Amino acid sequence: MITIQGKGVSTGVAAGPLYFYRRAKGTITRFTVEDRDAEWQRFKDAQAKAIEQLGELAEKARVEAGDEAAMLFETHQMMAEDLDYEETIQGLILDEGQNAEAVVTDVGAQFADMFATMDDDYMKARAADVKDVSGRIVGILLGIVQGGIDSDVPVVLASDDLAPSETVQLDKSKILGFVTSGGSGSSHTAILARTMGIPAIIGVGDQLKEEYEGREVIIDGGTGIVAVDPDEDTRVHLMKKREEQLKRLALLNQLKGQPNETKDGQKIKIFCNIGDPSDVAAVLENDGGGVGLFRSEFLYLNCDDYPTEDYQFEAYKKVLSDLDGKEVVIRTLDIGADKQIAYFDMPKEENPALGNRALRICLNRPEIFRTQLRALFRASAFGKLGIMFPMVTSVWEVKEAKKMCDQVRAELDAEGIAYSDDVEIGIMIETPAAAVISDRLAQIVDFFSIGTNDLTQYTLACDRQNNDLGRFFNAHHPAVLRLIKLVTENAHKHGAWVGICGELGADLELTETFLSIGLDELSVSPRSVLPLRQKVRETNVSEVRERLMDDLMSDANTI
To answer: For a Cys-Cys bond, which of 211, 231, 292, 336 suits 1, CB 3.0-4.6 Å?
Structure first.
């Protein structure tokens, strides 16, 4: 047995074969083929596989986000078997003897250039489609695994870490747990694992070797232990622990339908964080009261070009409809920093975490913002919607964003398109600047949602993605907690409600503190709802408030 120690960031025990994520890497070489008919058949096989994959993606998109989302992949299917496209490829292979990878790359670029120069905007947009289709066929010819996993059975997935654009493409039904050499507790791999309710371990460094692939592993997301080829005692111990966790989950299920109310009658909303319309099933399964954070940027990460208004509308509509009247807070586009999207063509920044990101991009590129806002307001007719702007530092930014909302509503009125007149407008409090002027911000919004991951990062000047900083990234730091208290007081003073949507919301060590501060809502991963409800129901706030607030404000507090 080989024992590897990492840091557990999503609890639970999982057992299965180890599998290393296949990142798309391929070099196009050019050569003359000897058997031209065989090379043509190789292209035809790759083309057929691409069409099959696109069909599967279309069905998945239809289930998760509606017909508009499925149409994108169906368009790609048609493009993959377009007669002109195919005949051009056929001629270069059969007549000139060029290899398939090089031919598809060249023809894809040729057709993309042709579309890009057309006058019609719709046809111009097809340039990105033909590039994507050609890239998919080339990837199949090169043996690149789409989505990073090529396994017939579920696996424990290993990687250095996964970018947001990679996590959205994973076949989640094939993942038992995650182990990464790098990453952090707030990395997207960790967030995905918590949303899925599966164990995850980060920071194992070079202890995990590719030669271990295919071998049995058991991982414990609570202790950070990875056991490769576990011995019998270890297997028995960890599987018993897994059974105990399942029993505890069964007991927690008895809390479904119970109020989030303390022993002395204080109530708090417990909502869920999601990144995809399909995550709504987990919200309902775990009895979440609503969605406190829908990370809309994952719709952008899952596309090869700017998602259309209709594409976004169908996704937002599905979430609101499926939640059947429960509150849904959708965060507007939050890219930049660790979430980069190639088609945005953003210039490289020395310090992207402090650069052009989130609301700054939306205000600098209003055409993108307007498209999203139109989709959001149209979707508001199908449920109870809150719109939330991220990365706020100034009052003028919020006023500018609200002005865009007014313009969009006026457009929809003029077009006779229905929307709700009861959409709440809120902001993320994730910078010290926003926290310090929260008294002014609370006067122009309906709610605050505190993003504790970034608030901790910016308050402590400590990169949350850098696992080496370890103990320096302390989300329990009194400075962070005092800012949360300040923000809550200012919100309530001006009639706004306030919640937490960062990972700290699920930290049971702080639940009593948050209740004592008076937060109105905690938004957490779906699997955290019932444990958090249990903690709330076990708490008597009147008994702990004075002591906890004294500790929080005391100069003697240990930092």
So the answer is: 231
Residue 476 is among the residues annotated as catalytic for this protein: no
CA angle 486–458–368, rounded 5-degree value: 100
408-455 tens-digit pLDDT:
999 999 999 999 999 999 999 999 999 999 999 999 999 999 999 999
Do the beta carbons of residue 13 and residue 243 sit within 8 Å? no
CATH of domain 2-24+149-251: 3.50.30.10
Residue 188 falls in the annotated catalytic set: yes
Alpha-helical segments (H) within 176-219: 188-196
**CA–centroid distance for 420 within its chain:** 26
pLDDT in tens, 451-498: 999 999 999 998 877 767 777 888 899 999 999 999 999 999 999 999
Topology of domain 256-553, CATH: TIM Barrel (3.20.20)
Q: Which of 272, 303, 405, 501 is catalytic?
A: 501
36-141 architecture in CATH? Orthogonal Bundle (1.10)
**Residues composing the chain:** 559
Q: Please state the domain extents for the chain.
A: 2-24+149-251, 36-141, 256-553
Q: Does the pLDDT value for residue 7 go beyond 60?
A: yes
